[in-house]
Design goal:
Blueprint: E1 8-16, E2 19-20, E3 23-24, E4 27-36, E5 38-46, E6 51-57, E7 64-66, E8 70-77, E9 84-89, E10 94-100, E11 106-110, E12 134-139, E13 144-152
Parallel strand pairs: 6-7
Antiparallel strand pairs: 1-4, 2-3, 5-13, 6-12, 8-11, 8-13, 9-10, 9-12
């Protein structure tokens, strides 16, 4: 079966704009991916009990993205009151956790063109990189809305 989906360009722009002590100190960095064939953007409500918000694996499935094809992941906390803890889990354990504060705080994973996506992504002791398998979330005091964007080749 043929496909009618054409790969598209994804441009990520990271910009800091500050005049510090009278001098412009801001910078702009742009990363471009030319081979994006899958783009997913969704909002999900995270309760005060841990839930899986995105998974990565060898096979695509409901909420699961092919791990070596992922090029970009952004998770943004849309809540204006509560924070969310994100737990990044590899093959064996939670590799690391971060606090995603209220008011549109974001966490971004950028995978380069020549990488293995989120395969060999991280490890908490920094010795052996593991395949990132899931990102789980838990709201601290009340349900929070997250925006999740995943782009894959």
């Amino acid at each position: 079966m043929g496909t009618s989906i054409s790969a598209s360009n994804l441009n990520i722009k990271i910009e800091e704009d500050i005049v510090f002590n009278g001098v412009q100190q801001g910078t702009t960095n742009i990363v471009s991916f030319t081979d994006i064939a899958e783009f997913s953007r969704r909002s999900v409500t995270v309760p005060t009990a841990e839930v899986t918000v995105v998974s990565f694996g060898d096979d695509v499935g409901a909420g699961t993205f092919h791990d070596t094809d992922v090029r970009y992941v952004r998770i943004t906390n849309l809540d204006d009151t509560n924070y969310v803890t994100l737990n990044f889990e590899g093959a064996n354990t939670t590799d690391y956790s971060i606090r995603l504060d209220k008011n549109r705080a974001s966490y971004v994973i950028l995978a380069t063109h020549d990488s293995l996506g989120v395969d060999d992504h991280c490890d908490d002791d920094g010795v052996t990189l593991e395949k990132l398998q899931t990102i789980k979330a838990i709201a601290n005091a009340g349900a929070c809305d997250l925006e999740i964007v995943v782009a894959s080749k």
